[in-house]
Design goal:
Bound molecules: pyridoxal-5'-phosphate
Number of helices: 9
Protein name: Pyridoxal phosphate homeostasis protein
Cofactor: pyridoxal 5'-phosphate
Family: Belongs to the pyridoxal phosphate-binding protein YggS/PROSC family.
Shape: globular
Function: Pyridoxal 5'-phosphate (PLP)-binding protein, which is involved in PLP homeostasis.
Largest sheet: 8 strands, parallel
GO molecular function: pyridoxal phosphate binding
Mean pLDDT: 94
Low-confidence stretches: none
Structural class: alpha/beta
Length: 243
């Protein structure tokens, strides 16, 4: 990553200052969105999605007080989590998860946002129970039937939620969704809020609503999101690190 696009890398101090400024801007956006929605900003947890950025950035963010880190690929997340094992971080796995990666992910992730099928529940449960770990799991809900970016349909949520709640080593946290590409995110997040309200009738503690990325966090907060997954607005453009 470079400050000016000329290719000269930032020093650690420059990068820390850049991240601190982005974080302050982001906190301002979150505070404004919470004020507009009549919500307390303390209800909203910020997850820094650090995919494609180095472990050194995770370390700098931890130094700035962030405790929640998100990754979407096991191959990248596993070594990064290992490099940062000395830091007091909670690791969120937010990407699509193949069943054969469940065991690996269960070894370092604290929260898995992308549980969207029964086989994954079984695989994560087996792995967590074997490692003596407890994994908080969110059911990923598809808000656009036409797309195939992962996620269970709203109708599939109750059975998946029951399966997670009853599985050894797993704890049901709530729901996650990604807004449909190229559409107004607001109706999609409203739908997610309705699915969450329905879920909480049977699982009152499953209060997490993981929604909202760099481009749509205001709409997500307006619709009750409890967890934001923010990459670009905090760390910068992901293409910038391609050399
Ligand atoms: C990359 C990613 C994010 C962060 O997206 P930005 O638009 O960069 O904030 C959030 N959620 C998931 C599932 C992601 O893969």
């Amino acid at each position: 990553m470079t400050a000016d696009g000329t290719g000269s890398p930032l020093t650690p101090d420059e990068r820390r200052a850049e991240l601190a400024e982005s974080l302050a801007d982001l906190r301002g956006r979150i505070a404004a969105a919470c004020a507009a929605a009549g919500r307390d900003a303390a209800e909203v947890t910020l997850i820094a999605v650090t995919k494609t950025f180095p472990a050194s950035d995770v370390r700098l963010l931890a130094g700035l007080g962030l405790t929640e880190v998100g990754e979407n690929r096991d191959q990248e997340a596993r070594p990064k989590a290992a490099e940062c094992a000395d830091l007091p971080l909670t690791w969120h796995f937010v990407g699509r998860l193949q069943t054969n990666k469940a065991r690996a992910v269960a070894s370092y992730a604290d929260v898995v946002h992308s549980v969207d099928r029964a086989r994954l529940v079984t695989a994560l449960s087996d792995a967590a129970a074997r490692d003596g770990r407890t994994l908080r799991c969110l059911v990923q809900v598809s808000l656009d039937e036409a797309e195939h970016r992962g996620g269970a349909s709203p109708a599939e949520v109750p059975a998946l939620a029951d399966a997670i709640a009853g599985a050894a080593g797993l704890r049901l946290g709530g729901l996650m969704a990604v807004a449909p590409l190229g559409a107004d995110p607001l109706p999609a997040f409203e739908r997610l809020a309705a699915v969450s309200a329905e879920l909480r009738r049977n699982h009152p503690d499953a209060r997490i609503v993981s929604a909202g990325m760099s481009g749509d966090l205001e709409q997500a907060i307006a619709c009750g999101a409890t967890h934001l997954r923010i990459g670009t607005a905090l760390l910068g453009g992901r293409r910038a690190i391609v050399r």
